[in-house]
Amino acid sequence: MATLTRLDIPVEGMHCAGCASRIEKKLQSLPGVEEASVNFATRRASVFYDSSNTGPAPIVEAVNTIGFSALIQEFTFSILGMHCASCVKRIEDSVLGIPGVLQASVNLASGKAFVRTVSDAVSPSDLMHAIVRAGPYQVLEAPPSEAEEAPAEKREREDLAALRGKVIANIALAAVIMLVSMLHMSIMKASDLPLESINFLLFALATPVQLWGGWQFYKTSFQVLKGGGTDMNVLIAMGTSAAYFYSVVVTFAPQFFPGATGEAYFDTAAVIIALVLLGRYLEAGARGRTSEAIRKLSHLRPKSATVLREGKEEEIPQEKVQPGDLVVVRPGERIPVDGLVREGQSAVDE
User: How would you write the pLDDT of the chain (350 residues) with one tens digit per residue?
Assistant: First the structure.
């Protein structure tokens, strides 16, 4: 038996009980909708649907196509901690799994998530919890304003500096581990050290790389696996753990592998972690430069527009300009919206 999901939709444009009846009939005709009722007094439609056959978006669209307006809300979130396209997909899937969410779009470069929902169906905290459940992300309800961007940029720089220090330390340790691993036979002959002693030295060098440098992979893997998914972090954690913990057993309890040569693979785990961290650092730097460019472009957008309505000029917020408005652009001003030139001429810096 299918599990039904309930969706309550505020509806504008109803004038009588006949309007409510029209909406009910339209909704009941949709595939996957088991029950639909519209209350004219409260201006709300209640729909029970099978989420495996339909979703909120077709239901809202059905209301709009017959001349009414299903009220929707829009939210924008700033997200920290994303580093690849897999993060984007995981967050979008987690948010879209909430009943009432119509659209979820995540931009990796700007670190922003745009979400459209049925009005009053989902709270901002529900959306934020869904984002956090998808992985080790930090989320703010609204994008930083111009006044708040300086602290955000400072935090990004601090995170990048911390990652740079971790990369340098781990690459240095991995290089020493590789050198010792390649020269272990020469070291043993020159110092009469047994192989076990070399393994103890490699263990001491590799453990900080595995547990400190690789901690973020373990943390992210736990979050991803808890959410029922997998990603590159899980692969890195599994691969490096196999090499590291096998080497630990060979070093401290070689009797468990009586046929083994006693050689450890600490170098394999350390080099993988160091190189992936280096890749993360380069990626974070490139993403930071891209975000900065996007922020600078957004600052160029005018905050207001002058429109001509009923023969009078009126200054309104840029986002409230409607299709069909006649916008007045004076010499030296930036063009606030896309449109067609109806009168006048000038030169524009594209």
Answer: 567 888 888 888 777 777 888 888 888 888 888 898 988 777 888 889 888 888 888 888 888 888 788 888 888 888 888 877 888 888 998 998 888 888 899 988 778 889 999 888 888 888 998 888 888 888 876 554 444 455 556 667 777 888 899 999 999 999 999 998 888 767 665 666 666 778 898 999 999 999 999 998 998 888 778 767 777 888 999 999 999 999 999 888 888 777 666 678 999 999 999 999 999 899 888 877 877 777 777 777 788 888 988 888 888 888 788 888 899 988 888 888 888 888 888 888 76
Across the beta sheet with 101-107, the strand order is 101-107, 112-118, 72-80, 138-140
Edge to edge, the sheet with strand 33-39 lists 33-39, 44-50, 4-12, 69-70
| CA atoms of 49 and 56, how far apart (whole Å) | 9
How far apart CA 18 and CA 279 sit, in angstroms, is: 62
CA 298, CA 5: separation in Å to the nearest integer?
Answer: 39
User: Which of 53, 55, 35, 54 has the alpha carbon at shortest distance from 45?
Assistant: 35
SS3 313: strand
Amino acid symbol at 311: G
Angle subtended by helix axes 232-252 and 266-300, to nearest 10: 150
Please name which of 68, 78, 82, 74 lies closest in space to residue 19, comparing C-alpha atoms: 68
Q: Are 298 and 76 in contact (CB under 8 A)?
A: no
With 0-12 / 13-18 / 19 or more C-beta atoms within 10 angstroms meaning exposed / middle / buried, residue 335 is middle
Cβ of 266: how many Cβ atoms within 10 Å? Answer: 30
Please, are residues 142 and 33 in contact by the beta-carbon 8 Å criterion?
no
Supply the DSSP string of 10-53, one letter for each residue: EEE---SHHHHHHHHHHHHTSTTEEEEEEETTTTEEEEEEETTT
Show the CA angle centred on residue 12, arms to residues 8 and 15, nearest 5°: 115
Q: Give the Cα separation of 66 and 87 in Å (integer).
A: 38
Nearest to 277 by CA among 112, 162, 108, 111: 162
